[in-house]
Amino acid sequence: MLRSETIDDPAALEALAPRWRELWAHSRTATPFQCPAWLVPWWRTFAPGELATIAVWRGDDLVGLAPLYLEHTTSGSKLLPVGISLSDYLDVLCFPGIEAAVAAVIADRALAINWSQWILPDLPAGAAGLAITHPALEAGQLVDHAACPVLSIAGDEALAVRVPARRRRQLRRAHKAACRRGCVSIMSAQADPKTFFDQLVRLHGARWAGHGDGVLADPAAEEFHRQALPLLAAQGLVRCWLVAIDDAVVGAYYGFHHRHRAYAYLGGFDPAYADESPGAILIGHAIAEAAREGAREFDFLRGQETYKYGWGAVDQWTMRKVWTRSIAQ
């Protein structure tokens, strides 16, 4: 027998983290963006509405979780995922083998919440959220949402086999140019999240100065990442790299590794070293390290920036599912 509850107290959401983490570890469709180390700091930082997270239990075991909140607008209330905007993938969590039953209970509980639209964006292929149905819900609108370019990788020779020859030549030239400038070193930095993030903020800001200033120009976004990064690092999910030329740190790479997939999330570099392409050097290093760790795919995440396709990435599309009620039930 499954039972459900709606969690509207932030303290209760945080208290759920140990059970949540265990469910996330078992869920077949989970990504780093569904783990409590990511979503609890997101809610703590932004809290843009009324918390309405749905938890599904089987006895004392948490077997389903839909982290949701209500956003109230003049046109009605929207039921939205916790983590929206900064999370490249969103989904619900379901325990393996009972996904359909859990999804049905989530839908049933969601219908008891007063909303006019229930929106699930950024659902990856195979997402548990795509299976949500209920007799009282119409089929809902399902459309392509965002492109996430992904590079297939395998084995220690991933760069030589998977990355186009033109990009490999550019990478060799970048290494040579950097070596002419000074002594080049690439350092793993996840053991010291604060120092790494200080460098990332500096370099990301320098990279985007005058061009929109970048995501970390928002103080709330910076605060969120400062909270989330140490928690993610403690679980072994982050991959943080810095590249230095002599004593100058000139590039930073912030990514994740989960199961057989690596994710390139954020980066930055010193424009004074643009000719040495520190960003490209770090991505090449991250791809090689991801393959060495057993990743099969290197995900450049949301956005169709030209440089991603230069590495040989191919679009994989997320979906957006929307249910609408003319009168909230």
From TrEMBL:
Regions crossing the membrane: none
UniProt-listed SUPFAM superfamilies: Acyl-CoA N-acyltransferases (Nat) (SSF55729)
Domain of life: Bacteria
Record carries keyword Iron-sulfur: no
InterPro entries in the record: Acyl_CoA_acyltransferase, BioF2-like_GNAT_dom
Keywords: Transferase
Molecular-function GO term, any one: transferase activity
A Pfam cross-reference name: Acetyltransf_6
UniProt domain BioF2-like acetyltransferase: residue ranges: 166-308
Transferase keyword on record: yes
Protein's recorded name: Glycosyl transferase
UniProt source species: Mesorhizobium wenxiniae
Lineage of source species: Bacteria, Pseudomonadati, Pseudomonadota, Alphaproteobacteria, Hyphomicrobiales
